[in-house]
Structure formats: structure tokens, C-alpha cells
Amino acid sequence: KIDKPIILLYGYWGPQKDLEFALNTLSxxxxxxxxxxxxxxxxxxxxxxxxxxxxxESIEKYKIIINEIKGFINEKDIVNLFISVxxxxxxxxxxxxxxxxxxxxxxxxxxxxxxxxxxxREQAKDQKNVxxxxxxxxxxxxxxxxxxxxxxQSKTINVKEKINESIKNxxxxxxxxxxxx
Length: 181
Known about the structure:
Blueprint (H helix, E strand, L loop, with lengths): L5 E5 L8 H13 L5 E5 L9 H11 L6 E4 L3 H9 L3 E4 L9 H8 L4 E4 L2 H6 L6 E4 L4 H11 L10 H19 L4
Parallel strand pairs: 1-2, 1-4, 2-3, 4-5, 5-6
Helix pairs in contact: 1-6
């Protein structure tokens, strides 16, 4: 059992996500004496031909702080990944709209620290587990989480509540969409 926070960097990696910034931030936090277990997971977006090289360079540069690289995760394995981590980091350069990774974190009740964009603020509205910060506050927010971390013995997800919430949201969307049909 790992007694330090398990941090996840996850997604469809491309230039919209600032892996270098996240790894550099975590490296500084480690240098300041904070311990964590870092997992990097997800595939590389093939639409950005030059990005794979940059991704691999970042991994090599910060390999000393990376505990696991899981690569692409099949949908059937996403549940196990998300319930095994204590903190998800969203270090985006730009939002590109709604974040699927943030949706997954919200669904699985994974505490999340992300960089602030209006789209994510709207998406995370009323979510206690999501902290969105300015770029200059990212390090302090992560460090604060690590310092205050208390291991959780077991995690449960109230799936029925999550499904009911989703149905309510879909009903609301349909109600507002009817005007345009």
C-alpha cells in the first residue's frame, strides 16, 4: 500500500496539455521535500506529428519523479485507474472546450487541481473536489494538497447518484433544446 498521495497526469496528450509545466512543478515540489507517487497515463494525439518527440523528451527529463507510465488505457480499465489515485492534475495550455478528463474525475470523485479556464469553471461548478487556479498558484495548490493528505482506506462511488445527476442534466439540456427544434 502506498502511503503518499498518488498523483495522476492523464489524457490524450497533445500541445493543448502542458506536460512539461506539470512535471516541472512536481519536480520543484519534490525538491522541497514533498513525497508523492506519480502516474502518467493516456495516449498521444496523432494529429500533432511533432508532439510525440516533445512528450518523450519531457518524460526523459523528469523520469526521476515518475513512478509509472501506463500509456493508453482501455475503457474497461479506466475505473480501476481513477479509483486508485488521490489527485488528478489538469495542466492545460488552452481549454479546447469541455474536458473529458475533468468529467471523468468528477464522476469518480477524484480530487482535481487544474488551471483555470472559463469552460472548466462552468464544468466544475458546485464540485467540491475540483480546484481551479491561476498558473502561478498551481504549485502551491498541489503542495497544499500533499501536505494535508490523509490516506483513504477505501473509495466508493455512488453510481446511482451519479446516474440520477446525469439524467437531471440531460433533462435540462433537452428542456432548453426544445426551443430550437
